Amino acid sequence: MFSAKVVIFLASLAICYGAPNAKLSSKKLKISPGVDVKIEDYPFVASVQWCNRIYGICENICGGVIVNENWILTSASCAFEARKVIVGESDLNAKHKVIVNVAAKYKHPNFTNKFGPNDLVLLKLSEALTFNDKVQPAKLPSQGQEFNGTFVVNGYNSITTADYSILQAVTNLSLISNDDCYDKFKKLLPYEKIVIDDDSNICTFSGASNTCSGDFGGPLSQNGTVVGTVTWTIKPCGASGAPNVYTKVSNFIDWINQTITENS
Ligand SMILES: *[C@@H]1O[C@H](CO)[C@@H](O)[C@H](O)[C@H]1NC(C)=O
Ligand SMILES: *[C@@H]1O[C@H](CO)[C@@H](O)[C@H](O)[C@H]1NC(C)=O
Ligand SMILES: *[C@@H]1O[C@H](CO)[C@@H](O)[C@H](O)[C@H]1NC(C)=O
Ligand SMILES: *[C@@H]1O[C@H](CO)[C@@H](O)[C@H](O)[C@H]1NC(C)=O
Ligand SMILES: *[C@@H]1O[C@H](CO)[C@@H](O)[C@H](O)[C@H]1NC(C)=O
Questions:
Q1: Which of 2, 105, 118, 133 is close enough to 22 for a disulfide, judged by CB 3.0 to 4.6 Å?
Q2: What distance in angstroms lies between residue 20's CA and the mean position of ligand 1's atoms?
Q3: What's the pLDDT at 56?
């Protein structure tokens, strides 16, 4: 079902993107050093789900961001397996959940590589979300807006244990320059082609990697404004010395707006 979506193995470190690798499920890996949080504090967070057609069982494969009542933004590498979206949940194992089908998917036309630039897809929902204290659209930056200060990343990271499903946050993250980001990855993966694209990417660094397979497409935010979406990371999760790479949402506002306008 889930193929090993790890393109490069080098010693114990590798680049990792997209839906979770089943082989990781048994390992205790999670958004690091994450704390459990309530969806009310991050009501724009969505869980993108893959569902087994025969058994109807769904699982978190990626994070996502509520753009408006009909649209979710996530990583393009999550598009293929995206079937449903859960919103308004701190615990994905809760009994009564808001689960909405994905009706259509619009990948960024210039996304070509699994860990290249333009790593975004817009998922159109089959029915409109109802907003409340647990379900709210994200505030988006203006086109080209730059940020400083501290940020928070969210993820359910259902791969941390077989059934880990609690919303987590890593707070107090600071941006580093893309050059610094590249150098830090290059130190860990000296023989790999590392692409940090200035138009597409921003990086944070807190001493070790904060996100893991299952968090892709999830939000990096500042006071409720979504500044980035998780794009790729390296294995093992939590790798010391590794920054985190995000898609720079402020450079895609026109595309988001245009795609939604043309397809609504
Ligand atoms: C995709 O790339 C082409 C060529 O660089 C560019 O002209 C076009 O605007 C890009 N599309 C989007 C949606 O950014
Ligand atoms: C941080 O952002 C604020 C608001 O955009 C800006 O006024 C300030 O100059 C920025 N600070 C730095 C150090 O870039
Ligand atoms: C946030 O991070 C900075 C620098 O890494 C650190 O000095 C500061 O104590 C941290 N603040 C909190 C509230 O954790
Ligand atoms: C975020 O909000 C807090 C309080 O709600 C405020 O103190 C802080 O300045 C805000 N940060 C930014 C970057 O707007
Ligand atoms: C999208 O574009 C329309 C038309 O230009 C504009 O009215 C709207 O405010 C834009 N929305 C965003 C989120 O930028």
A1: 2
A2: 29
A3: 81
Count of other CB atoms within 10 angstroms of residue 54: 6
The β-bridge partners of 86 are 47, 99
pLDDT in tens, 100-147: 999 999 999 999 877 789 999 999 999 999 999 999 999 999 999 999
Shortest-distance Cα residue to atom 2 of ligand 4? 223
186, 184, 164: which is closest to 175 by C-alpha? Answer: 184
Is the previous residue joined to 137 through a cis bond, with omega within 30 degrees of 0?
no
> Hey, what amino acid is at 173?
L
Query: By three-state DSSP, how is residue 203 classified?
Result: strand
pLDDT in tens, 20-54: 433 333 233 455 677 889 999 999 999 999 998 88
Contacts of 120 by beta carbon, 8 Å cutoff, 6+ apart: 73, 74, 75, 76, 107, 108, 111, 229, 247, 252, 255, 256
- Cβ distance 219 to 45 under 8 Å? yes
Class of domain 14-263: mainly beta
pLDDT digits (tens, 9 = 90+) for 190-231: 988 899 999 999 999 999 888 888 899 999 999 999 999 999
- Binning the chain into helix, strand and coil, the percentages to the nearest 5 are 15, 35, 50
For ligand 4, pick from 223, 226, 227 the residue to mutate: most ligand atoms within 8 Å of CB.
Answer: 223
Locate the ligand 4 atom nearest the alpha carbon of residue 150 and give its number: 13
